[in-house]
Design brief:
Length: about 250
């Protein structure tokens, strides 16, 4: 089996009195696609946000490529990393948001060039070359000089994916990447994500697109109430779930 890329162990997270993650374990291997499904409020976004330390965990730990996220181990104890070390870790963890989050004042090309130059210290020339190659890969070679507001939602999300790839992430996290799109634009974004899956990009995708999960996922994880209720190959979790909660959820979304 391939190496473990993301490891989540016993993660708890509360907002005030509300316990949102109640002991989550998740293992993602290099080159695999994990699709997380589950009802609204079950903690899916919070889980993704703990994986790149946008949220601090209350208990448990997360590691990416063998490195503890947000912490280091010292004498058996976990010590928090400094903000600048967290930022450095985060450059290797790509995040694609529901609402794209492109820089509106930068062209498409500049959106892709900015972080590699500032965070990875790439030369402008090299960053531009990579950016053009990635835009070509997501089918937007012709839009390099456009501003995000000129593009459709589907195009903007493809730019966001290319921008995440420009940082050569060890893992790409997607939080409902097609939920903000008009239905006719969903397919073009899922096609890009499916292509990345075929080329071995390690990904964790939160989505309600069950057809996509069935086709692309190596593992489907069903979350409810802050825990992983069940996980396994799509054929098992989606077509033959063991838990009543999974069945009840699927009967609503399918
Ligand atoms: P999902 O992505 O599965 O819909 P979330 O992880 O977004 O679930 O949210 C889980 C629960 O945590 C929800 O009840 C939500 O209202 C709550 N929550 C999320 N973020 C915050 C926050 N920053 N402060 C307080 N409550 C939050
Ligand atoms: Mg969410």
């Amino acid at each position: 089996m391939s190496q473990v890329m993301v490891d989540v162990r016993g993660v708890h997270k509360s907002y005030g009195p509300l316990e949102v993650l109640r002991g989550v374990d998740l293992t993602v291997r290099a080159g695999e696609v994990t699709v997380i499904v589950g009802p609204s409020g079950s903690g899916k976004s919070t889980l993704l946000r703990t994986i790149n330390h946008l949220e601090k965990v209350d208990r448990g730990w997360v590691s990416v490529d063998g490195e503890l996220i947000g912490y280091r181990r010292h004498g058996g104890k976990l010590h928090e990393l400094k903000e600048k070390d967290v930022l450095k870790q985060r450059t290797h963890i790509g995040f694609v948001f529901q609402d794209f989050n492109l820089f509106p004042h930068l062209t498409v090309l500049e959106n892709l060039v900015e972080a590699p130059v500032s965070a990875l210290r790439r030369s402008r020339e090299e960053a531009e070359r990579t950016a053009r190659r990635l835009l070509d890969r997501v089918g937007l070679a012709g839009q390099a000089d456009s501003y995000p507001r000129r593009l459709s939602g589907g195009q903007q999300q493809r730019v966001a994916i290319a921008r995440a790839l420009a940082l050569e992430p060890k893992v790409l996290l997607f939080d409902e990447p097609t939920s903000a799109l008009d239905p006719e634009l969903v397919g073009e974004v899922l096609d890009v994500v499916g292509d990345l899956a075929r080329t071995g990009t390690t990904m964790i995708v939160v989505t309600h697109e069950i057809g996509f999960a069935r086709e692309v996922a190596d593992t489907v994880v069903f979350m409810d109430g802050g825990v992983v209720v069940e996980q396994g190959p799509p054929g098992t979790v989606l077509d033959n779930p063991r838990h009543e909660r999974t069945r009840a959820f699927l009967s609503k979304v399918l």
